[in-house]
Amino acid sequence: MLKKNKILKKICLKLSEEEFQKSKIIEVFENIIFVKKRKFWEIEIFTSEVVKDYNQIKNLFKIDVKKIKNVKKKNWLLQNHNNDCGIETNLFFFSQGLKKKKPKKKSNNNT
Q1: What pLDDT digit, counting tens, does each position of 27-76 carry?
Q2: CA separation for the pair 79, 10 (Å, rounded)
C-alpha cells in the first residue's frame, strides 16, 4: 500500500518477447502494466521507492530503464463524476447516477 506523502513514480521499460519471458518481471512487482506492441513489451512499474526498484531492475534483471516519470495526482472521484455522460435509447437512460442529468421524456400521442 502506498503512503500519502510519498511521490509516485513510473519506471518505463521496453523488452523483447524473449527478454520479457525470461525475466519474469511481472511476478516481482505489484503495481505493473505490461502491453505488447508489435515485437516488444512496454512495461510501466508504479512505485514510491524508485531507488530500490531501479537498482533491482538494473542488478537483478539486468535491464536498462528507458524512463522514470512523475505520476500526476488525480482526483479520480471528480474525474469519474465529470465523465458520467450516460447512454440514452428510445426507452431508457443508463448512467452511474453521478450527474443529475434528467433524460428527455418522450410522450406517446398515438390515441
Answers
A1: 999 999 999 999 999 999 999 999 999 999 998 888 889 899 998 888 87
A2: 21
Domain ranges within the chain, ordered by starting residue? 9-70, 73-103
For the chain, the 3-state helix, strand and coil shares in percent, each to the nearest 5, are 25, 25, 50
pTM comes to: 0.63
**Cβ atoms 103, 93 nearer than 8 A:** yes
Q: Quick one: CA dihedral 9, 11, 51, 23, positive or negative?
A: positive
Residue located via cell numbers 516488444: 40
> Is residue 19 within 8 Å of residue 63, measured between CB atoms?
yes
Topology of domain 9-70, CATH: Alpha-Beta Plaits (3.30.70)
